[in-house]
# Entry
Amino acid sequence: MLNRAIPKNTRRRYLLRGVVRCGTCGLAYCGSQGRDDVGWYRCTGQIVERGPIGGRCPGQSIRTDALEPLVWADIERWLRNPGDILDELDGRAEREAAGTIAVAESATLSRAIEGLEDQRRRAIALGVRGRLTDSELDAELDRITAERTELDRRVAALEPADALEVPSAAMDAIDDLRARLDAGLSDEQRHEIVALLTRIVIRTETATEGRRKSASATVEYRFPAVVQFSTVTGSSRP
# Structure
């Protein structure tokens, strides 16, 4: 079970920390402890007025147990059975599959870099408007720079599709992960895998008469699959 009962005074582990973004204001979601030991993911723009929109972000909070089990189940299923891409590791078919993965990874990294540039512009604008202190702005810009450096490194490491060799190292890594899955992963190890393979955007639908506002989670995996699902949940935080 991903969401075990959390004893009092024990810090909750949030599997998806650092990978969830708000589709309303673009800020990160953070883990937050609710009533009755229920964990939530909550837009940081709800906590303090710091996003590009006026006032606090209306983005919907979402329960950890509505999102975490689905994401981890998809990742574990792929790690245990990645399909033809790893079953046909010879000749042209393998190279074409590997090339497809490289192209998809490059596109994902490009979108992530564009997102960081948008975050940088928003942070600077907030600093100019006095919505962020100098120390808060410096911390945000440092975070963005560090993430951009890592993304640039990964882009540089991608080879052209026609130059790709049989990815034996990738197979070895996946075989190692399968062995770890069987032996049992720590919460931190699972988080590292999720952070490597996953990007999630939460979009909020405005409440209408007679209906509560709802949240839709789009989960993008950095392996050859994109899975979308929606969950409707009432937030304990207005």
